From TrEMBL:
CDD domains attached to this UniProt entry: ABC_NikE_OppD_transporters (cd03257)
Listed GO biological process terms: peptide transport; transmembrane transport
Family, similarity comment: Belongs to the ABC transporter superfamily.
Keyword Nucleotide-binding: yes
ABC transporter domain mapped to chain residues: 5-255
Protein name: Oligopeptide transport ATP-binding protein OppF (TC 3.A.1.5.1)
One function term, GO molecular function aspect: ATP hydrolysis activity
This protein's UniProt keywords: ATP-binding, Nucleotide-binding, Transport
Superkingdom of origin: Bacteria
Keyword ATP-binding among record annotations: yes
Organism (species): Caloramator australicus RC3
């Protein structure tokens, strides 16, 4: 398979300031050594509870945040240290679609200006040509070209998300990180926007990293899913393989909370004890050991490797060490 995105040992630590001199007294380890890849044309879903580092991972691989450590390869090129003009050029190929369609669009700009802005910044085109492209993009996302002179507040949540998607597509990107892109929408509108994501993926030959805490949304759209817990990736597999054969105790608990239509297949819900520990003071060893019902002595002292246990099925857990 042809990999579009490769991530090796990625870390993103946020310094915590404090004390009299406002010095860095500690680090919040939002992402603490994750490695994965996304194949060209694929949708990788990323799931996990709030605060586990999904958004930070997405933003760091787009270089919207500076990585603390690790390596990011995009389309065969190491972009970890890329900056200035070279980074600006690369940025055209990778876009983020924001979480909240209500706050991510500038209310003082018309829809035409919002969608056309990236074209103005990155390309030298005439006003007429830009307007043509904006109208075409509106069409592609299911909005009328006549909307070009309207303002964001005149649109519904679903329509605003479509405007955000049109803007992200304006420069013909290869890769899109969709961060909770449908979470703020009503369920029926969610389905329409997910369908749009799927149509656009085919038409524009896109690759997605689709971040959501909603497992049913991720199951629907993703080819593969990765599960994050406290800044680490604990499991990654093809979507149905993950749902049918979850191996990591955290994934098992997470999936046991998803309603299953067939009552015969119903599994008992696994209730995790305690809260997620703080990423400022994460447990030593396996970060999940404090809540794991299978925790062994080794889990308290050593970090399990993220290993391919079965074909394409990666898990970080000592239960599978042979
Ligand atoms: N700019 C920042 N400065 C300091 N801490 C941050 C910053 N951004 C995120 N964090 C912290 O990093 C951790 C991971 O946050 P992140 O937003 O990546 O998680 P998430 O899984 O996407 O959660 P959510 O679904 O709630 O967005 C959290 O503890 C968060 O508070």
């Amino acid at each position: 398979m042809d990999k579009l995105v490769e991530v090796y040992g990625l870390k993103k630590y946020f310094p915590m300031k404090g004390g009299f001199f406002n010095r860095t007294v500690n680090y919040l380890k939002a992402v603490d050594g994750v490695s994965f890849f996304i194949n060209r044309g694929e949708v990788l879903g990323v799931v996990g509870e709030s605060g586990c580092g999904k958004s930070t991972t997405g933003r760091t691989i787009l270089k919207l945040l500076e990585p603390t450590d690790g390596k990011i390869v995009f389309d065969g090129e190491d972009i970890t240290k890329l900056e200035g003009e070279a980074l600006r050029k690369k940025r055209k190929e990778m876009q983020l679609i924001f979480q909240d369609p209500y706050s991510s669009l500038n209310p003082r700009m018309t829809v035409g200006e919002i969608i056309g802005e990236p074209i103005t910044i990155h390309e030298k085109v005439s006003r007429a040509e830009k307007l043509e492209r904006v109208k075409e993009l509106l069409n592609k996302v299911g909005l009328s070209p006549y909307h070009v002179r309207r303002y964001p507040h005149e649109f519904s949540g679903g329509q605003r998300q479509r405007i955000g998607i049109a803007r992200a597509l304006a420069l013909n990107p290869k890769f899109i990180v969709a961060d909770e892109s449908v979470s703020a929408l009503d369920v029926s509108i969610q389905a329409q926007v997910i369908n749009l994501f799927e149509e656009l993926k085919e038409e524009f030959k896109l690759t997605y990293m689709f971040i959501s805490h909603d497992l049913s949304v991720v199951r629907h759209i993703s080819d593969r899913i990765s599960v994050m817990y406290l800044g680490r990736m604990v499991e990654m597999a093809e979507t149905e393989e993950l749902f049918n054969n979850p191996m990591h105790p955290y994934t098992q608990a997470l999936l046991s909370a998803v309603p299953i239509p067939n009552p015969k297949l119903k599994k008992d819900r696994i209730i995790l004890q305690g809260d997620v520990p703080s990423p400022i003071n994460a447990p030593k060893g396996c970060v999940f050991h404090t809540r794991c019902r299978y925790a062994m002595d080794v889990c308290k002292h050593f970090v399990p490797e993220f290993k391919e246990i079965e074909d394409g099925h990666f898990v970080s857990c000592f239960l599978y060490d042979k």
